[in-house]
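Onboarding guide, step 5: your first structure request.
Type a short instruction followed by the sequence, for example:

Predict the 3D structure of this protein.
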Amino acid sequence: MSEKEDASREISFLEALTERYNPNYEQLKREEEELFFTNSVTKYTKKVEMVGMEKIGRKQSDLHNLVQVSLMDAKVSLIDQDIGDKCPNLKEIDMTRNEWKEWNIVESLGFQTKKLEILTLNGNLMNHIDSPLVLNHLSGLKVLVLNRCQLNWNTIQNVEKSFPLLEELHFCFNNLSSFEDKVEGFNNLHLINLDNNSISDWSQVMRLSKLPSLQKLMISDNAISSVELEEGTEDFSSLKSLSISNNKIDSWTSIDHLNRLKKLDTLRCLSNPIIESHGISLSRQFVIARIKLLNNLNGSAVRPQERFDAEKAFVKWSFSNDSVQNARYLELVTTHGAPQQEKKEAQTLAEDLINVRITDMVGGSETISKKLPSSLMISNFKILCSRLFKLDMSNQRLFLKVSKSSPFVDPIEDDSRNLSYYGVVEDSEFIIENK
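The system replies with structure tokens like these:
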């Protein structure tokens, strides 16, 4: 058969499946013989462990027992009528990049796979659907993955009734900027993944706020600049987890508004301007303090001691930076008490001293403890370090670990700020390293 004829030949689902998961045993026997090698020193013959798709293919060569299959890039264009007889246990199918466009082929696949729960259609440029359509035989689907399909949300809304049990919807890299119409239905949807789209307006995200079962929302790598939620809101009533990294959020007010979500306990918010402007460690403290139910931030658990330290530091920072009208500050003052009011005429320097540790990693890990005023400028702190360790600080970098409970160390870049600005508290550690 010529290359042209081979390229135009239609390939069925079972044909592709057999080729990928039921390999030629004669060929495998020859391969097995090549999978032995002899160590030239010990003369010991050892069998090499197979890895990857070949190993999976051998284990799953019995099509009748297949539960999970991937026919990525298999160019399948026909759905056999006896898939259900030969592969009755299929629950998860990945049809990424098979050049599908028509939804009827998806419907045919559903008809042949009665137990199908997870379907991946990444990279298939499916046709848009402009009016409600029920795709029969897909009612048992729980996870649908439609990344890079160039679809609009209207299509998803129009086929919503086809998936009454749907729990997860992945809809990334579709250049989605808005929901053309209201979002309704999806009563069992627990997770929506809208990462890497073009959403810029939080009001569009709010169109998902009435979904009754939504527990996890992923909207990282979009262009959202602010979050706005009403005080006492009942929106996103089931939401526990939010991923909003790599957006354009530039105000702590947006983080404050997230505290209005009644069940939010997990948040990812890295690579936003407001986070980067304060460094990972200090920003982590501020986010933990501002969102009272948070127990996991950016993939790291929030321990009780870290929360205690973060809230205390936030109260002190808010007081020092005239942010005492912040609602969360007022709430935390009832727990931790208000910072002592400054008595500018009578206050002694000792009342403002913080014990910090300074570690010189340049000269051999020596650590010195010093009591310093929270108002001390970083520029003056560096002068102190140069005297203590006899270093030229212009050739060194300064880092800060805010508390022992913090897993992060942040660079100190702005010499014009004071210790209080960086959230320095009792027993914070400064680290000096070479540039």
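Each response can be followed by summary notes, for example: Residues 35-53, 342-346 have pLDDT under 50 and may be disordered.
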